[in-house]
Specification:
With about 230 residues, the chain is an alpha+beta fold. It has helices at about 40-45, 50-60, 85-90, 95, 130-145, 215-225; strands spanning about 65-70, 80, 105-110, 115-125, 150-155, 160-165, 170, 175-180, 185-195, 200-205.
């Protein structure tokens, strides 16, 4: 059962372009040669998410606290463009439905006020690494196609609109930096990768120091917890 009905960030809008935040890299994220062939099991799956302390260390902030988590995909009341929503938000049902996942777990961690920093972690377990890698490949293609588009979602407790950045692919991880509408440069970096049979998502939202490195560091830290 879901313990978090909706995780939303304040509606904001980008009036500037952070062209330095993400660059185009030719190619598609895919499973690296020699990647682990063993699978993460059901009983080891939930432990892959970072603790508040580990998430804070990866995100480069002193403290994070858990706002809530869920073992169901996130449900949006409405999406302006479901085909592009995977680039903008973590573990949406509209994105993962029908892809063959076995388990999911995701949540949101926040820094204490007045700092505006929210870190989302999401993991999805698939029957095989090939299935997980197929999701990564298709997502990379879709994120590239959706670059530059503005997309919105509506949840029970709010809505947000983001302009999707141009994804960059490096070492089997795809990352984009998305800007909130009306936020004066605030937004989220969003990374997606695969380790064994697990799809890993990380997103870091802030109004200062918006760089791709935060979500990349969180996603890498989750991947490093996969022990086979």
């Amino acid at each position: 059962m879901s313990r978090l009905r909706a995780l939303t960030v304040a509606t904001a809008c980008a009036t500037t372009v952070l062209s330095a935040c993400a660059s185009t890299v030719e190619g598609t994220a895919h499973l690296a040669a020699g990647a682990a062939s063993k699978n993460v099991t059901a009983d080891a799956f939930d432990a892959l998410l970072l603790s508040p302390g580990d998430a804070a260390a990866a995100a480069g902030t002193p403290t994070l606290s858990l706002d809530g988590d869920s073992t169901d995909p996130a449900q949006a009341q409405s999406l302006s463009d479901a085909s592009c929503s995977g680039a903008g938000w973590v573990l949406l049902n509209d994105v993962y439905h029908g892809t063959g996942y076995l388990q999911v777990h995701w949540g949101r961690w926040s820094a204490p006020k007045p700092t505006y920093l929210m870190v989302f972690q999401g993991i999805a377990r698939y029957p095989t690494s090939l299935k997980a890698n197929d999701f990564l490949t298709q997502s990379t293609k879709k994120w590239t196609e959706c670059a530059g588009k503005s997309v919105s979602r509506q949840f029970s407790d709010g809505s947000d609109v983001v302009t999707l950045g141009t994804p960059a692919v490096q070492d089997g991880m795809v990352t984009t930096v998305n800007l909130f509408e009306g936020g004066g440069g605030s937004g989220c970096s969003h990374s997606l990768t695969v380790k064994a049979n697990v799809v890993i998502e990380a997103m870091a939202c802030t109004d200062t120091n918006l760089t791709p490195q935060r979500s990349q560091a969180v996603a890498t830290a989750i991947a490093d917890r996969v022990q086979l």
